[in-house]
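Hi R.,

Here are the chain sequences for the assembly we discussed:
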Amino acid sequence: MMHFEYHVEGGNFTKAGAASSQLKKILKQLNVDPKIIKRIVVALYEAEVNIVAHAFEGDIFIDIDTEKIGIKLVDQGPGIADIELAMQKGYSTASPSVREMGFGAGMGLPNIKNNSDELKITSQVNIGTTVELVTYLNQ
Amino acid sequence: MKVAEIAEKLNLKVFSGKEGLNNEVTNGYTSDLLSDVMGHADAGNAWITLQTHKNVMAIASLKDLSAVILVKGFEPEEDMAAQSNEEGIPVLGTSEEAFTISGKLYGMLQK
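And here is the predicted structure of the full complex:
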């Protein structure tokens, strides 16, 4: 059983993807199936960027055991009023400057869903959002 | 086909990441939406885009892309070039539009 934690600063795009990059290296060292690594990296990157783009700050907790990888992202931020709407392809509340960078196309949450085995999002407006992802290793 | 051969044949400028000129290009992916590339590009793809910031390299690295080709005379921002050097993923440039350079690269890779 391994546990990792990363802190994510809201608004700091220069560091976006740092946690995903670290996890990718760790999973490679653990000889996890490259196909599984690819999916996890996509899901975590999108979730990480969501904290950078939308929240004030957040923390990522990663637990790896022989059966699965569990990732929990907890942010302090505006929260999501309508999660079902946010899950729709093409829906985004990203700012114009974030969109100009090529983010905020409303593809992040669909990417997370497509690249994780279990996804649970809970949110409180003006408090924050928690995203939980599970990926099974033996499938 | 190697990045260096593509750069030479398509007359691309090499801005950074020279260490990766021997990377093998499997195919190309043309998009300016980062999550589109994140979700749909494959390892070994050369990414054709007009985005010039550092996050492009984060994605190129996470997705194991072979190179980034900037279109319409765009140049990488300083921190993008720096990360390209660190990762050994070349950033190349052309004065041509995405449509044109994508077509040329497609033609080359089909042969």
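Chain A has one domain: 2-136. The first helix of chain A runs from residue 18 to 29.

Let me know if anything looks off.

Best,
T.
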